[in-house]
Amino acid sequence: MKIPISWLRDYVDLPESIEEMAEKLSFSGLEVEEIIEVGAALKGIITGKIEEISPHPDADRLVVTQVNDGSKRIQIVTGATNISVGDIVPVSPPGAVLSNGMKIKVSKLRGIESSGMLCSEAELGVADEADGIWILPTNTPVGVDFIDYAQLKESLLDIAILPNRGDCQSIIGTARECATLLNLPLKRPEFKLNESKAETAVDLNSKSADCPLYSLRELSSCSLNKTPLWMQRRLELCGIRPIQLFVDITNYVLLEFGQPLHAFDTNSLKGTSISIENIIASSTFKALDGQAYTLEKDDLVICDESGPIAIAGVMGGKSTEVTENTTSVSLEAAYFDPIRVRKTGTRLRLRTESATRFEKSVDIEGVIEAANRASYLFQTLAGATVKNINVFKSEKDPLFKEKLLNFDPEGINKLLGTTYERKDIQETLESLGFKINGDTLVVPSFRQHDISELPCIAEEIARLKGMENIPSTLPQGPSLKASQLASFEFDQLIQNTLCARGFSEVNTFPMVSEKSFKKAGLPIEGTLHIANPISQDESVMRTQLFVSLLERLSFNRRRQQKDCHFFEIGKAFNESIKPHFEDKRLCVVASGTYFKEAYTETSRQENTYSIFHMKGLLEGLFSDHSISFDSNDSRTFLHPKKQCSILNNEGQIIGFIGTLHPNVASEFDVSDDTVVAEISFLSLDLAPKFPSYQSVSKFPTIKRDLALLAPKELSYGDIKSFLLANKPKLVTDIQLFDVFESDQLGEDKKSIAITFTYENKEASLTDDEVNKSHQDLRTLISEKLPVSIR
User: Fold this and answer.
1) Which site among 33, 188, 375, 627 is 20 to 30 Å from 704 CA-CA?
2) Which of 368, 396, 424 is the last residue of a domain?
């Protein structure tokens, strides 16, 4: 937003150094992107009145004028065609300098002496082009310094207003910040409004919670006079084109107070009632810019008895616009919901000055004051008769309740690491409009939307006192809870281990597309959809991490990166997970070769990542958490013969390992041998397990072998799970040492040879003890497993 310094000085006594003020504002959070100097080269321009115009004796296209500069008559030759006797115009006498740096001298044009020049807007830097001489209002004084009178030489602050600081999107709001930074009083505009006893004869009714406050005031007997030069210049300097007096007044107050207003032609309104309501069904609306817009359900509109006459907070309608024939204006001032205005304005692609202010929230307590200010300007500049204002107010709306917070100077100092006195903090906040009663702080109405707790208050103190004044100290605060620390340390262990084994950590967004779900063959039901996604590629919260990692794997493979080993510790989301729908997980994806430089035939054959590599990796990572594996799994996105579930110590499924199904690999354009593993931390105890010392037994071990004839579909993993759950106490280790298949055994049979280690740490074992224990184990295996002992 561009802020003219001269306008700012109406409300606060700024220092001479604009650079110093700009620096203070930037350090306080209102970044001054640029200081713009307008008309810096201008010098010596005055106003003059044309008293006589005569033809040039030797040039058909030139005329000789006699101009009164307030003290004497001067002769100026010009080629302008839009001037008349009696016009008041800008004059550059000899010695004056134009905006382009040209210095005016006495000269002769076709033999006639010319002592100066009549100026256009372009020559004074006000406009890029001009059709003729700048004709000034008839009440412009003659002989005055036109540079000061018309504010031709001005300094502008171009300030970047943050989304949460809508209160600063006005001249008064910025002046308030300057006054606080300089410890100076804020001078609000003073005016006295003379209201007639006549009432504004319109019934108001808001049928929508999006409009808790709406006011309308009739201004009758208005004269469409020319907009004063000072108002035109201020609008132009702020980037708004002057249109006509009635519109210019509403724009002026918008800039001054930050409150958008709208002027309806009273005689164009139908009926005696105005309602504010949300659209029920789609309809077409013709706006002030002459364009027809399609309004959709829930768009907020202003209606008379004929239908919509304005899109609330965005733009008025063509049917009720003020024109040169307007003599009675109905002035609207209201508060519209920021979200509703932004949704409508964004969808319609109407980024108006009004919409940009409403969507950042306006001061609901300043609505009527802004309406009164505009009414005063209508009264003084257009001679309007001001009727009583008509107001609709939803008293129960939370916006009309004072926002109270605890005033805690000690907490503010603790948070900032400062030692400011209570009185100092209180005075700073009060200069910003806060009220303090004992230990209670009342938030001003224009900051209710962004001040909500102690850190917000501390931020105000920090930025206004100066970040540079806060001493540098080591971070202070409570230490992590044991559970938080354990989780953090476990994450670090996983990260360090996997990185050491050649994996790269990735961080992906938790939002994915529905298309990615379909490619992975995952159901879309039960997923959390984002209400207003940035794009369709980020519209659904992922229920599995591997979807995101497969997209990254695909991205890298399209760039000739064939050997990709990725992992991520992140969150998946599901409606069934209460209360926050979040599930912290580890996902590991590997594709391509295990070693970079495999040069022998044997090493090349064993160099592709497999499900067994991944299983061993997870067993090492979760060795303290008693995880196990179950091959009876049937996930559709994994190869039916190359997958298994991961179980916790209670037998609950907490994850999976497997090779991608060829169809899924094809959808993501990745290799068929891609291995994926994913495990949830939700039911794992991440508390650190401290190793305890166990001495080596002094007594010898005894080994017994067992050969089983088993069906080919029965895996060793299933057999070992059974043995670990039912083994005798004396068995301390179980190892597979041979798997054999032959025609003699049968087409559907295989031989599995297993070694059992028996050990007693307190005494030497006898053959009888081992034989009895081993026989019991043989009997149990024969009874419970579909095998025979060879």
Assistant:
1) 627
2) 396
Domain extent, residue 738, equals 702-789
Q: Are residues 389 and 421 in the same domain?
A: no
| Closest C-alpha to 125, from 80, 83, 90, 78 | 90
Global pTM reads 0.66
**Measured distance CA(194)–CA(203) in Å, rounded:** 23
- pLDDT category of residue 603 using cuts at 50, 70 and 90: low
Spatial separation of the C-alpha atoms in residues 101 and 489, rounded to whole Å: 69
User: Would strands 273-278 and 203-206 be described as parallel, antiparallel, or unpaired?
Assistant: parallel
Number of continuous H segments (helices) and E segments (strands) in the chain: 20, 39
What is the per-residue pLDDT across 117-171, written as a single tens digit (0 to 9) for each? 999 999 998 888 888 999 998 889 999 999 989 889 899 999 999 888 889 999 9
Residue 730 lies in a domain: yes
Exposed e or buried b for every residue in 74-112, given b needs 16+ CB within 10 A? bebbbebeebeeebbbbbbbeebebbeeeebeeeebeeb
DSSP three-state, residue 396: coil
**Residues 45 and 90 sit within 8 Å (Cβ to Cβ):** yes
Instruction: Kindly state whether residues 236 and 381 are assigned to the same domain.
Output: yes
Give the tokens for residue 331. Answer: 């002035």
pLDDT tier at 526 (50, 70, 90 boundaries)?
confident
CA-angle at 136, arms to 103 and 73, nearest 5°: 60
Distance CA 62, CA 341 (A): 55
Phi, psi (degrees; rounded to nearest 5) at 329: -115, 135
Same domain assignment for residues 567 and 616:
yes
- What element of type H or E holds 437? strand 435-437
283 and 337 belong to one structural domain: yes
In angstroms, the CA 544 to CA 553 distance is 15
How many of the other CB atoms lie within 10 Å of CB of 746?
A: 12
Q: Which residue has the tokens 């419970």?
A: 784
Whether residue 27 has pLDDT greater than 60: yes
Give the mean pLDDT of 525-549.
88
In angstroms, the CA 30 to CA 26 distance is 5
Per-residue pLDDT tens for 450-467? 899 999 999 999 999 888
Number of neighbouring beta carbons within 10 Å of residue 497: 14
- What's 228's DSSP letter? P
CATH code assigned at 741: 3.30.70.380
φ, ψ of residue 203 in degrees (nearest 5)? -85, 130
Q: Is the pLDDT of residue 674 over 60?
A: yes
| Distance in angstroms (rounded) separating the CA atoms of residues 317 and 303 | 10
- Compute how many other C-beta atoms are within 10 angstroms of the C-beta atom of residue 232: 21
CATH number at residue 24: 3.30.56.10
Q: Both tokens of residue 106?
A: 């006495």
Number of domains into which the chain is organized: 6
Shared domain for 501 and 413, answered yes or no, is: no
How many whole angstroms separate alpha carbon 211 and alpha carbon 474? 48
Q: What confidence score (pLDDT) does residue 293 get?
A: 94
Better-scored residue on pLDDT, 455 or 600: 455
Q: Give the C-alpha separation, 334 to 326, whole Å.
A: 22
Could you say which of 343, 369, 396 is where a domain stops?
A: 396
Model confidence over 168-192: pLDDT tens digits?
Answer: 999 999 999 999 999 899 999 999 9
Answer whether residue 92 shows pLDDT above 90. yes
pLDDT at 482 over 70: no
Q: How many CB atoms lie within 10 A of CB 740?
A: 12
Q: pLDDT confidence of 599, banded at 50, 70, 90?
A: low
Neighbours of 16 (CB within 10 A): 6
Residue 489 CB neighbour total at 10 angstroms: 14
Contact between residue 53 and residue 105 where contact means Cβ atoms under 8 Å apart: no
Q: Please compute the mean of the pLDDT values over residues 509-518 and round it to a whole number.
A: 90
**Residue whose token pair is 């070992």:** 720
Cα separation, 407 vs 423, whole angstroms: 12
The closest of 215, 319, 326, 361 to 274, measured between CA atoms, is: 215
Instruction: Note whether residue 472 is domain-resident.
Output: no
